[in-house]
Amino acid sequence: MKRTLSFGQAITELRRERGLNQRQLASEIKKEDGTSISQQYLNDIENGRRSPAGDHLIEQLAQALGTDPAFLAYVAGQMPLEIRDLAAEPERLRLAIQAFKEALESNP
User: Could you list the residue range(s) of the whole structural domain that residue 65 is in?
Assistant: First the structure.
């Protein structure tokens, strides 16, 4: 079984795969007011001292790192936005989560 990544570990691994240092990545991530996040803020995220500050930051990081925002939401312990926005009755939601779990367990 693969190890479970934390949000910070996933960001670090994706950043390194793209050959970016923290300063470079931080300069690409814009807060909602349009200013870049600081290198220290990114360092705190990567080292588990801060959580991602919502959907906007996750979307920005996913775009900069070339990954799916749903993956980053998942490793952040959040429900992906496109799933959260769906209206579902409790039983349908339970069945969907069960199917999701089974797919992850059966796919090596």
Answer: 7-81
Measured over the CA atoms of residue 99, residue 62, residue 52 and residue 4, the dihedral's sign is: positive
Domain-embedded: residue 39: yes
Q: Is residue 53 part of a domain?
A: yes
3-state secondary structure of 86: coil
93: its two tokens: 């939601």
Per-position DSSP letters for 46-72, written without gaps between them: HTTSS---SHHHHHHHHHHHTS-HHHH
Closest CA to 11 of 49, 42, 54, 55: 42
* CA–CA dist 61, 11 (Å, integer): 8
**pLDDT tens, 25-79?**
999 999 999 999 999 999 999 999 998 778 999 999 999 999 999 999 999 999 8
Residue type, 20: L
